[in-house]
Design a protein that fits this description.
- The chain is α/β, with parallel strands linked by helices.
- It has 7 helices and 6 strands; from the N terminus they run H-E-H-E-E-H-E-H-E-E-H-H-H.
- It has a 6-stranded parallel sheet with strand order 3-2-1-4-5-6, sandwiched between helices.
- Strand 4, helix 4 and strand 5 form a beta-alpha-beta unit.
- Helix 2 crosses helix 5 and helix 4 crosses helix 6.
Amino acid sequence: ISKWCQTWLKDRFHKESRYAPNGIDLATFSPVSRDYSAKIRILIEGNSSDYYKNVDESFLITNQLDREKYEVWYLSYNGKPKDWYIAERFFHKVPSPQVGKIYQQCHILLKSSILESFSYPPLEMMATGGIALVAPNGGNAEYLIDRVNCLLYQSGNIEQALQLIAEICQNSTLRQDLAEQGIATAQNRAWTGIENLILDLYR
């Protein structure tokens, strides 16, 4: 499921394993164009009660944004907003087929997790043509490339994240390049293209 998990199993438990890449359903997460001339919508995703999802940090960042220019949507299957979270909309336990529609309505995904087995949300946002602003971790390292298909910020560096949000909004060339490369990355992860690699593990 993730290359770092394969290394972890070998180094810590001396167990050999085979790697099966995760894929994405592009019928659910299809690209749409965004208008950056009006209010920018930022999506935060994750369970607020799981420390490793680090959702608090995402809100430490977005709580500082000018609400005349930005709004925040929060998506969580488990966990609800804390009292100090500022979000215009909260989506809870959304059925999987509808999640892609939420991504399509947002410009930027802000993902601050410090640990993931495999991190789907950045890939899902990229598949819809949006921009992923992400703290790097083992679960996203294998498909995210800074300033190629996403923007990476150092976990804990609130000011850097704020600066990158501003850069996304101001730099149309960067946005276009990131969106195009993000879509290409997601297309390379389509289940239809990797299903045989997975089936080969069982043959």
